[in-house]
Amino acid sequence: MKSFLLIIGLAFMLPAFAGDKAKVKFKKDRILVDKVEWASYSRAAGKFFMGVIGGEDFLSYSMESFVEGYHTNGQEKTESYLVVEFLMGDQKGEFEINVNRKQLVRLLVKEKVFENNTFSNEAAATFRKKYAQDISGRRFLTK
Description:
The structure is a single chain. 26% of the residues lie in helices and 38% in strands. It has 143 residues and is of the alpha+beta class. The protein has one domain. The strands form 2 sheets. Strands 1-2-3-4-5-6-7 form a 7-stranded antiparallel beta sheet. The chain has a two-stranded antiparallel ribbon with strand order 8-9. Strand 2 (30-33) and strand 3 form a beta hairpin.
């Protein structure tokens, strides 16, 4: 009986632990965070852009990958990452980050880089300092 109550108690606690994870959806030309329109979204020339709704783009990113090694069955092991560039504010220039696009949006929301349809240059500087990595530099160390 105690184990049954423990299982029931854990079942009710699990949503509380997952509560900080925002639900992100990429629609045709919009990004939704927890079913609320968060930013515009577009693609051109192999790059993806996030922007102010009805305004200009504030961020661009492209997906990159390289072969990191081989599995025991001979298949290639690839490392994927994003090359991100802020298009507004003082944080010009590309940097690399080891996340997928949904994780990127969650981090931008968490760090309040883009909130209430406005871009924060201070938050962008903190974001870049906190999450930028040299991933492509490792590509040559794996061969």
